[in-house]
Predict the 3D structure of the following.
Amino acid sequence: MKIVLAAYGSRGDVEPFAAVGREMLRRGHDVCMAVPPNMVGFVESAGLAGIAYGPQPAAFQSDSLKWFFGGCPPGPGVGDLDRDMNNRNPLGAMVEVMEHVARAWADWGEALTTLADGADLILTGKAAQGLAANVAEYHGIPLAVLHFFPGGRSRAAGILGGIIKDAEEGQRRALGLPEATGSFESLEIHAYDELCFPEMATQSRGGRSFVGALTLELPTDADDEVLSWTAAGTPPIYFGFGNNVQLPSPAETIAAISRACAELGERALICAGASDFSGIRPFDNVKAVGAVNHGAIFPACRAVVHHGGAGTTAAGMRAGIPTLILWFSLEDQPMWAAAVERLEVGAGRAFSASTVASLVGDLRSVLTPQCVTRAREVAARMTKPAQSAAATADLLEEAAV
């Protein structure tokens, strides 16, 4: 069968779809990966055919837009749109955001309509669920939606409900569809383990399935060097804040991490992510690198400290090591921080509320024998990556029949 996987955002948003696509391709299906222009190379490196879909995500990466959509405090202006917004009144900034989102939604809808011609099923995320539902209805094919955390619409979708609704209604008119009378039936696939949110089981309804986190676990050029470094001393504490977060002051952050780890007698492995670590003075107890394969590196670490993305949280839990989440966004990251605390495998707090003293205290709390033991126990109950991809592919094959 032919399946269209439409994903948008950073690598953390796209990789789960690529994991599904690779499994579907392995089973002999025709897979079309629709991704942001800057993610085409990534999905091709996973052996998939990537097609550019929608505007360049850089258009959404200004500090003001990231604050609006994700809850991070705005910083100095970056980019023409951001500088313009920071120099204008809030109403003008809101108009700018609304116009920007309207253009993006229109681009996504038009592109997806073309890509889905002749397809047997569409798989998308919840951000574009309404647009994808219209396309699925137009082509008369099933729709499946991948969820990375519990909940309905995203924070941005809730705030921009009116403009998104207008875009979806305009798309229906352009496709010749009647006015929507209700939500389009879709298969809900929850790409996380049910044990993370046990209350979801009691609220379960038809069409919802839990498959566990989806990841490719692709090797990187730095993996061998990092593993050699970890083996040459005590297991380090991993620090990483994702591909969507630019640290306000990388030099100060690295210095604070070094001080906290030195006080505890620990080493730190820090991944740059979206931040620029060039020109920052080195510390004896710190190794700074670019991207690493979490599946290979995390088991060699004592604990993992990160921003609270769904994929990184799952990788840390699967590795059986304690987690400290220092969250940035109000979307899902505090939810994951609460989950690791509830499971007693870690702790969490806002990155903006963190100090060297709080970091020392938080690390002490997650490195206790009780937390270490509990992390290993929970890891044994986590779905393995290959099982997650296979379960998702099974569901898609069943839905497309």
Summary: The first strand starts at residue 2 and ends at 6.
